[in-house]
TrEMBL record:
UniProt protein name: cyclic-guanylate-specific phosphodiesterase
Organism: Alkalispirillum mobile
Residues of the EAL domain: 1-252
Residue range from the parent sequence: 467 to 718 of 726
Length: 252
């Protein structure tokens, strides 16, 4: 299988799908957002994971049309969900997308065309942005922030962002990498890095989302620390739009 060749045809052949994973308010238990995640069903090779094909999409520039497709599709789909009028939509961005000169315009157009309010959009960027031009990315994120978009640092704690870097970027949310959450186990849940990150985020006035929550122990721990939001298999795996509608309808 040649991933690059396959990727070049995948959009035309409608081989991508979007799945969604809920984010839950720790205090109220309500679902407040859905993270959109891309899936690729190759006609011969079957499902190929984003971990495999996203790097190739980035190297080839195909991440630009693929990213546009994902945002457009997720916006359209979520707007059709009953009772989801207040849900936020979180999407993952590659550095290459942010480095596009017309990035702000593209996001504005996709939301404008679909009717999805910018004020319900969360952009997830990783710490290792490898941004060629930090100033211009900061400027773009500022512009989007003024329009109501929020920005999250994804996989927080695994990259090399310094505190000064964090302060420079107009961000609203830290998503604690799942490896730190999974380290919360019987007898090992004191003085964890999670505790430190949450305290730091509170000091910086940032929202915190804990990723990869799988157990009740982890949930209770996050509640004690007054972590704001959480996401993980404990609540739901990433699911398709139809299942997401059912989940929302039956959520307590
Ligand atoms: O969904 P899964 O856990 O398999 O995702 C694996 C990785 O792929 C994660 O780091 C996730 O952020 C990334 N990913 C999933 N969907 C997208 C997408 O639409 N765009 C980008 N850039 N990355 C994505
Ligand atoms: O890098 P990013 O955070 O966008 O990646 C999200 C990925 O994490 C998705 O591929 C999703 O399938 C995966 N994921 C979400 N919740 C859990 C969880 O509770 N446990 C594990 N192991 N993976 C998870
Ligand atoms: Mn993410
Ligand atoms: Na993450």
């Amino acid at each position: 299988l040649n991933i690059e060749t396959g990727l070049r045809q995948a959009l035309d052949n409608q081989e991508f799908r979007v799945v969604y994973q809920p984010q839950v308010d720790v205090e109220t238990g309500a679902i407040t957002a859905m993270e959109a995640l891309i899936r690729w069903q190759h006609p011969e090779a079957g499902e190929i994971s984003p971990g495999e094909f996203i790097p190739v999409a980035e190297q080839t520039g195909l991440i630009i049309p693929i990213g546009d497709w994902l945002l457009h599709t997720a916006c359209e789909e979520m707007l059709r969900w009953p009772g989801a009028e207040h849900l936020r939509l979180a999407v993952n961005l590659s550095p290459l997308q942010l480095n596009q000169r017309d990035f702000v315009q593209r996001v504005g157009e996709i939301c404008g065309n679909t009717g999805f309010p910018l004020s319900r959009l969360d952009l997830e960027i990783t710490e290792n942005l490898l941004m060629r031009d930090v100033d211009s990315v900061v400027e773009k994120l500022r512009t989007l922030s003024r329009l109501g978009v929020t920005v999250a640092i994804d996989d927080f704690g695994t990259g090399y962002s310094s505190l000064s870097y964090l302060q420079r970027l107009p961000i609203h949310t830290l998503k604690i990498d799942q490896s730190f959450i999974q380290a919360i186990r019987e007898g090992q849940d004191e003085g964890t890095l999670v505790e430190t990150i949450i305290a730091m985020a509170q000091g910086l006035d940032l929202r915190v989302v804990a990723e990869g929550v799988e157990t009740e122990r982890q949930l209770n721990y996050l509640r004690r620390l007054k972590c704001g939001y959480m996401q993980g298999y404990y609540f739901s795996r990433p699911i398709n739009g139809r299942d997401a509608v059912n989940l929302l309808g039956s959520w307590p």
